[in-house]
Amino acid sequence: TPIVRLEDYRPSDFLIDHLELDVRLHPTQTRVVATLRMRPNPEGRPDAPLVLDGDELNLKAVSLDGRILTGEEFDASPQSLKIAQAPRQPFTLTIETEIDPTANTKLMGLYRSGGNYCTQCEAEGFRRITYFLDRPDILSVYTTRIEAERSEAPVLLGNGNPVESGPVEGTDRHYAVWHDPHPKPSYLFALVGGSLGRVGKTFTTMSGRKVELAVYVEPGKEDRADYALDALERSMRWDERVFGREYDLDVFNIVAVSDFNMGAMENKGLNIFNDKYVLASPETATDQDYANIEAIIAHEYFHNWSGNRVTCRDWFQLCLKEGLTVFRDQEFSSDERSRPVHRIAEVKTLRARQFLEDASPLAHPVRPSQYREINNFYTATVYEKGAEIVRMLKTIIGDDDFRRGMDLYFDRCDGTAATVEDFLAAFTDVTGRDLTQFARWYEQSGTPRVAVKGHYDEAAQTYRLDFTQNTPPTPGQPTKEAMAIPVALGLVSHDGSPLGAACDRVDARGVFLFDEPADSITFTNVPALPVPSLFRGFSAPVKLSLDLPNEELLVLLRHDTDSFNRWQAAQTVAMRLLAALSTGAQKLDEEIDAFSEALCAFMDSDALADPAFAALVLTLPSEADVAQDIGKDVDPDAIHRARTDMRRRIGKASSQRLHGLYEALAVSGSYSPDAESAGRRSLRNACLDLLAAADRSMGETLAVTQFETASNMTDRLASLSVLTTLPGAAREETLSRFGERYRNEPLVLDKWFALQAAIPEDGTLERVTRLMEHPGFSIANPNRVRSLIGSFAMLNQVQFNRTDGAGYRFLASIVLRADALNPQLAARLLTAFSTWRMMEGTRRRHAEEALQSIAQKPNLSRDVGDIVSRTLD
Ligand code: B3K
Ligand code: ZN
């Protein structure tokens, strides 16, 4: 397959100013008539042919300025439509295609989900609807007429504002016309036709315009859409207040569908969502689900400015909209909830997914320079590391200049398809700073490692920190240059009393910009040996190695003013212990006891003051985190044993306290998903987990009781999750009651599939195979597949990485089955193999064989072909 390169970008030879679409929906023979008002691009080549993109299209007719073209005048295939002699002045091209939405299992283009019609066009799905210049720098005004059988699709939605609707006389059909006045790229096109329930409200924007907001869901589930609608309203208000961004159409519609390849899609004025990120009720959704819904509703709404009004020139610039929009949704959630708690959650995800990717054969820059399949670049690197870059920029230039730069960027680039350079130029222009070195964050892949050593000079009362940095080689990038790394830092005294230390290399915001391979900074006026608190708030996406003994790190847990680093200190100590235990270290009893004691002291002083934060402190790094930390010759069984043992020992050492907290945190009264209540539940459930690790039979009793008395899904699922760690009859019985109770609730069954797939015991693979026969499972539905198969491959370290290779062979067979239906889904599953080189030899050999068995198959999709070959490289 051809490689697409950033350096080969050139402007389109033609432009499309306006597109009129007439879509007559039919289950298997949908007719699309596209009328394109086009002209040559003054910036294009003067005598280039017109080549429109297609994908599995069936052309019925094509005419130019009203004249039907004969076979000699064009060249059509399912993949393209070429007109060698296109006019040199404005012209109108009319194209009729026929498509089959029912046969569309790729869930790209126009497809059906639960009987409804919907679309997904990003990145290159519009070409599955009609021939087009399907690239993000072609901005057009769209008018869409949708027609359907009234009984089949009473609701017809399009981008922009509704213009007219009515019956098609003499038939059972009806139609609706939508007009979107804002020129947009084709990837933001959407339409929906179906039978849907609606909740809505009116929103008044900051300049006083009225907008009709609506969320459409499966009829009968309207009461589960209220939280999403509320999150939308809060997002709109927040973007006005924090970024000065106002909404720009008369309506904003969100539609939930049950078959969807990712989380959601920001189509102009018509967001389409995976129903998992819309539907919520206390009985069916967890606190985490509520938080995800809030974040994703916000994310897609924020795209209206960062993505839609200012879009991407080409797909290499994907981080321009995604990294920025993730940053914006993170800030929103931080403002709506607890900032430090949210920051910790962000960093946990970043490390678990992006650091993992950066350390794998799939590592790539935030702005890649080449791709074979763009769908494979909607990654943690583009999204999460992309957001970290925006955050670092803000840390370096400060809040006020950041806001001024954002305003300039939005004003200057509004209505254009922009680049990362345009984004950075706005900040250079408002600050006068040279951001050339900073821009390396977009180009250079891999996670920088920063090593720091402290030196205290008692006589001089100074404290010096020596910094070095290096970034390991990654595919295509053997050598690296120094990065501009903002280090937010401070010094902490052993008893927590304030220090009057000063350092002229640290700015007023407490930030040192570390931008050389090595550098040293010196604090003066330091009366006693301090503990350095580095990368406060995780000020840069780097791996820190800090040469400090555990007891000094634990000073930070107790006394740091930065919550993130309090949590980080506990994690670092836990990680050291887990990694040492997993790789055979003996005699760690004293260290483990000291750590348990520090946690006990922390529980006494802090747990009830901030339960959400305490829950994070009490949760040990995951098995996958430990594997990543060890990095080579990984034995997942040893890690599992080490973590189980640590949980048991911490649980035993603190069981009185855990009990006390478990009782104290019991809540009566009705469920509320707010962050504070959720925090109490998360701490209570973290306590339950440790209690069960310490005393199996007591844990089982508590968990079963909690399961039976739970008033909400968060507590019910948490108790079931604890039970999955305790093999026996109680677990099996509770699992089967849960499965029975929710057999008609697909999104709840997903949780049930996921929990079982993650059971770290022999027999789980057989359980997963059995569950694939469950009536609630379907290989065609991405949510089901990700819950059952994805959880097994990504969350079950010991069973996926079985020493006999059966876990790998199983995943390989599912990837091949899924690939025939839905390549994007298959390629995502396949990324579970990206850790294979870290494993010890036996596992590594089995993994390589499984990967080879995929690579050797003929007719792989481009998606799977690309991932498998890069993973093996
Ligand atoms: N922009 C979409 C992702 C599209 C993925 C296409 N393979 C959702 C989002 O990031 O907001
Ligand atoms: Zn996005």
TrEMBL record:
Residue ranges annotated for the Peptidase M1 alanyl aminopeptidase Ig-like fold domain, each copy included: 446-545
First-tier enzyme category under EC: hydrolase
SUPFAM superfamilies: Leukotriene A4 hydrolase N-terminal domain, Metalloproteases ('zincins'), catalytic domain
GO molecular function: alanyl aminopeptidase activity; metallopeptidase activity; zinc ion binding
Record keywords, A-Z: Aminopeptidase, Hydrolase, Metal-binding, Metalloprotease, Protease, Zinc
Keyword check for Hydrolase: yes
Peptidase M1 membrane alanine aminopeptidase domain sequence ranges: 227-440
Domain named Peptidase M1 alanyl aminopeptidase C-terminal: residues: 551-872
Span of domain Aminopeptidase N-like N-terminal: 18-188
GO aspect biological process, one term: proteolysis
Assigned EC number: 3.4.11.2
One Pfam family cited in the UniProt record for this chain: Peptidase_M1
Catalysed transformations (reactions): Release of an N-terminal amino acid, Xaa-|-Yaa- from a peptide, amide or arylamide. Xaa is preferably Ala, but may be most amino acids including Pro (slow action). When a terminal hydrophobic residue is followed by a prolyl residue, the two may be released as an intact Xaa-Pro dipeptide
Named cofactor requirement(s): Zn(2+)
Family recorded in the similarity comment: Belongs to the peptidase M1 family.
Name the record gives this protein: Aminopeptidase N
Organism encoding this protein: Microvirga flocculans
Highest classification ranks of the organism: Bacteria, Pseudomonadati, Pseudomonadota, Alphaproteobacteria, Hyphomicrobiales
